[in-house]
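Field log, afternoon session.

UNIT: design team B
ACTIVITY: writing a sequence onto a fixed backbone
BACKBONE:
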């Protein structure tokens, strides 16, 4: 099986696992959820990883496979109980690395790319760090995952999660009026590659402008140039 086909299979596999997760969480809450945060986040990470891959010297298909599988252990499984699923989520780097390796072995991915993906998934957890990741795929997966959180996509994913996963009231004007979070600047400074830092600067500026325009429009203003 060529690596592009493996990437497509990984996408299908995660799409299915995210649906299963959404179904489990929906039945625990007694209501179907209308927003699939896990899939939306993963899709954005895969797209960013694929776009940045050439610039950081990684095969784009390899980058997308790692991205599709990186949060696999956050998808709850119906064959496990709540405690086991929570434990998988709490250790989702190391557990996900193993689950991804098992899946990739079943597709016949050769040992070396499988090893790189295993390591990148094990090392992607966290928001902040003060050292660069040396392996190109580790660095790229970390960067794509963090970039997905600090831009326009991240704002929309978080809003979707708030609207569907929390019981508290969400005031949209207040939501979009939030300034740039200190955490986002820390995430930006923890990126590994120059290409990702340039991407972060563009995305953070676009997200600030997006939030400003959204808050203004929701308060009855006309769009500003
Ligand atoms: Fe993660
Ligand atoms: Fe993630």
């Amino acid at each position: 099986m060529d690596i592009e086909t493996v990437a497509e299979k990984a996408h299908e596999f995660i799409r299915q696992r995210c649906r299963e997760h959404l179904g489990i969480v929906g039945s625990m809450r007694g209501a179907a959820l209308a927003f699939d945060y896990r899939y939306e986040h993963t899709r954005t990470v895969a797209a960013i990883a694929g776009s940045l891959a050439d610039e950081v010297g990684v095969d784009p298909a390899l980058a997308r496979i790692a991205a599709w599988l990186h949060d696999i252990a956050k998808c709850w499984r119906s064959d496990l109980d709540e405690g086991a699923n929570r434990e998988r989520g709490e250790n989702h780097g190391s557990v996900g690395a193993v689950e991804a390796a098992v899946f990739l072995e079943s597709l016949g991915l050769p040992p070396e790319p499988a090893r790189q993906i295993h390591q990148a998934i094990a090392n992607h957890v966290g928001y902040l760090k003060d050292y660069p990741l040396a392996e190109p795929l580790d660095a790229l997966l970390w960067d794509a995952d963090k970039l997905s959180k600090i831009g326009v996509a991240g704002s929309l994913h978080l809003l979707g999660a708030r609207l569907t996963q929390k019981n508290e009231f969400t005031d949209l004007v207040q939501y979009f009026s939030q300034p740039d979070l200190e955490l986002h600047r820390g995430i930006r400074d923890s990126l590994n590659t120059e290409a990702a830092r340039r991407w972060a600067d563009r995305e953070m500026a676009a997200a600030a402008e997006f939030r400003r325009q959204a808050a203004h429009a929701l308060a009855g203003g006309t769009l500003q140039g």
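LOG NOTE: The two ends are 50 Å apart (CA to CA).
NEXT ACTIVITY: expression trials, pending approval
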